[in-house]
Amino acid sequence: MGVRMVYLSKHVKSLFLIAILFIVSIFSYGTDLYADEDLYHRLSRLTKSQQDVINIKKLNVAGKEIDWAKAKQIECNGHLRVLKTDLIKGSDEETKLYFVRNITGEIYILSIPGKHESISQELLQSYSDIEKMLEYKMSFKLLVTKKSVNGDMYSFARFLEPPQQLPLDKIFKTSIVLMLFFVMLGMGLTLTINDFKIVFQKPKAILTGAFLQWAIMPFIAAAIARMIGFFDAFPYIYVGIILITVSPGGVTSNLMTYYAKGDLALSISLTSFSTVLSLFFTPFLLTLLCANVPEVTIPVKLVVQTIIILVIIPLAIGMFVRNRWPVFAEKSTSFFSILGVIALLFLIIAGILGNLEVFADTERYGVKFYSTVFLMTMLGMLLGAVVPKLVGVNNYQTRAISLETGLRNASLAMAISILIQDYMGDFHASMFFTSAMFGILMYPAGFIAIAFQKKFLYVEPQPPIPVKVEEGEY
Fold first, then answer.
1. Which residue range is the domain that position 213 belongs to?
2. pLDDT (tens digit, 9 = 90+) per residue, 199-253?
């Protein structure tokens, strides 16, 4: 237990400072956003309709027929995206539609040069590397023009120079993977099979916590998000709220339980137990509660793969190392915890500096949004304090259950959001932003909850360990 306390205490000051800096930075930027949102959704629908999927090839062919000598040149930062269909089998021209999305929202369908067109080898290679560019924020120099296809006007683009990935975006993508990997590996290094035996030793506490996490909070979150209006007005914010409440607990709940002087062993076991259960419950509940959201389809296979690769595997590796080489595991725990903090630091800073334009969308992300996200974590901790008391769980364990219910693995939710946002048509990256804000706001919420726990969930101070004094010593 001593090793775990050292592991947990090393994180909290750094994480709390990062959270404060992120919150202070929120209101510092403005711009006009999302000019072509309707076009994005129209293109997305082409890939999901058997009747409309033929238009993918028409758009690709139209791009090849453009006279680029008359096109204008622009420079912008943005993303290279792809919409693809699995309704038919065929060539990339028939099943995939690539486009450049400016950070201000303009969309340009990317024209892929034909085999016999005369362009430089370097530029030709940039088209060959398109799949590697997906999901990264890039700097583009483009030729752009407009053309009518089937009576509708579209903007088309071609690369003028090979796109370059923005340095901050590279840090951001790398750090979110590193953070999840090292945090889960570090958690695994502190775990043994005995930590899972507590499920049977304290079944009431464990089952109450699991019930709150998977059977209560997601459905309450869905009801509140519908009542506030996100389901109809901003459906991807609704999905983001569901996503954070169907994610398992994380290291943050263990940190807070340690400082709340709650049952740390129970908290760690609950986190481990819920992490394993997330392999089933996260995709299942996400699909169930988002089934009727307009134009939203949950990629269950991709969600499961993400959980396995970024959560289950590093956790299992850490536990294996702990079981095989316990001394090495104890010595390396601090090292991995520091790496996890550094990765999180880069994640927050890169996320802020690389996505400042999002904060300007106050219509979407206004007071109602921030209040709802904060409410989710506070409500989880409130229910986690009340329900266990109703079933006879003692205060020491209730403190752990309360924090475990309200504080979730926001890092996992963020990673899932990034991977599925284009498949789902999340033009505004609302799922990611919701998960990120939850990850920040849960820290002040956690400290508020700890303050209330000290008053309403009183725990007798642990007696000091007696020290044996040998005769003749003073």
1. 2-30+167-456
2. 677 789 999 999 999 999 999 999 999 999 999 889 999 999 999 999 999 888 9
